[in-house]
Specification:
Helix content: 40-55%
CATH class: Alpha Beta
CATH architecture: Alpha-Beta Barrel
Structural class: alpha/beta
Number of domains: 1
Length: 278
C-alpha cells in the first residue's frame, strides 16, 4: 500500500474529483488504514460530512487471542468503538461484517448491529463475503424482528470473477442490497500489464497469487479487452471498470489505487461508454 503522505494525497485527489465513498477495515494493516483516514479527515473536519466512511469488523486484531475478533456482541461493540477512535468520528456511515462468523448465533450478531444503529454510532449495515443463503436468511430475520436492514453486499466481482452472478448478485437484487465489488481489476490482471510473454517474470513477492489467475481463459478475455480499449480510446482497466459499473445492482466499486496515476486511470473509466456488443 501507499505511505501515509501519499495516501492523503490520493484521498484529496479522489474527493476533489467528486468521490465521497471511502472503504477500509479494522484489520487492514492492524488499524493503520483507519488511522490514516482519521488523522487526515481530523485535520479537515469540513470534509467529514462530505464523506461516506465504510469500515468492517470480524477479523481478529490480536494474534493468539480467540476473543480478539468475531461477530459476538462484545466483539462487535468493542470493534466499533475502536474504529470510531481511529477514524476520529462520531459515527460510521456503513458498517460491514467482513465475512461470516459460523460460531456466533445470527440473532446475537444482528441485534448488536441493530443496537449500534439505534445508538447513532452506525448509520447503515452491510455484509461482505457471505454466502447468499446466509444473507437472505439474515435479511428475512431482520424483517421479522423489525431490526435495521442490510443495505449492501461487498463481494469480489470482475470480468474474470463472475461466479457471483450465479447466486450472490441475484440475491442482492431481490433482497435490496447494493452491490459493492472489490478487486475489480483482479489484482492488476485486468490492467493488461501481464501478458503470455511476461507471465513467468512476475515479481516473486506477488508471485503465486497473480500467476494462478493468468490462465489461457484470462488471456482470451484480455485479448478482447485490449481490442475494445482501442475502439473506445481507453485502457483495458478503464474498460473493465466501465463494464462492471453497468452490471445490475452495482452501486459503487472499490478502487485499490496506490498512486495518483492509478487513481486518475481508474476515475477515467467514468467517461467510457460501452455499447451492447461490447
Amino acid at each position: 500500500g501507499a505511505n501515509p503522505e501519499d495516501s492523503c494525497r490520493i484521498i484529496d485527489a479522489y474527493m476533489d474529483a467528486g468521490g465521497n465513498f471511502i472503504d477500509t477495515a479494522n484489520i487492514y494493516t492492524k488499524g493503520h488504514s483507519e488511522k490514516i483516514i482519521g488523522d487526515h479527515l481530523g485535520k479537515h473536519r469540513h470534509k467529514r460530512d462530505r464523506t461516506v466512511i465504510a469500515t468492517k469488523f470480524m477479523g481478529n486484531m490480536y494474534s493468539g487471542d480467540p476473543n480478539g475478533g468475531g461477530a459476538g456482541r462484545k466483539s462487535i461493540i468493542a470493534a466499533c468503538e475502536q474504529s470510531l477512535r481511529r477514524l476520529q468520528t462520531d459515527y460510521i456511515d456503513l458498517y460491514w461484517m467482513h465475512f461470516w462468523d459460523n460460531l456466533t448465533p445470527m440473532e446475537e450478531t444482528l441485534l448488536a448491529l441493530n443496537d449500534l444503529v439505534q445508538s447513532g454510532k452506525v448509520r447503515y449495515l452491510g455484509f461482505s463475503d457471505t454466502p447468499a443463503w446466509k444473507c437472505a436468511q439474515a435479511q428475512t430475520l431482520i424483517d421479522f424482528r423489525g431490526w435495521s436492514r442490510l443495505v449492501a453486499l461487498q463481494i469480489e466481482y470482475s470480468l474474470v470473477e463472475r461466479t457471483v452472478e450465479g447466486e450472490l448478485a441475484p440475491m442482492a437484487l431481490e433482497m435490496g442490497l447494493g452491490i459493492t465489488p472489490w478487486s475489480p481489476l483482479k489484482g492488476g490482471v485486468l490492467t493488461g500489464k501481464y501478458t503470455r510473454e511476461n507471465k513467468d517474470d512476475i515479481d516473486p513477492g506477488r508471485g503465486e497469487g497473480i500467476k494462478k489467475n493468468l490462465t489461457e481463459e484470462t488471456f482470451k478475455i484480455l485479448d478482447i479487452l485490449k481490442e475494445i480499449a482501442k475502439q473506445t480510446d481507453s485502457s483495458p482497466a478503464e474498460v473493465s471498470l466501465a463494464w462492471l459499473r453497468e452490471k445490475p445492482g452495482v452501486t459503487s466499486i472499490i478502487l485499490g489505487a496506490r498512486t495518483l496515476d492509478q487513481l486518475k486511470s481508474n476515475l477515467s473509466s467514468l467517461s467510457v461508454e460501452l455499447d451492447s456488443d461490447q
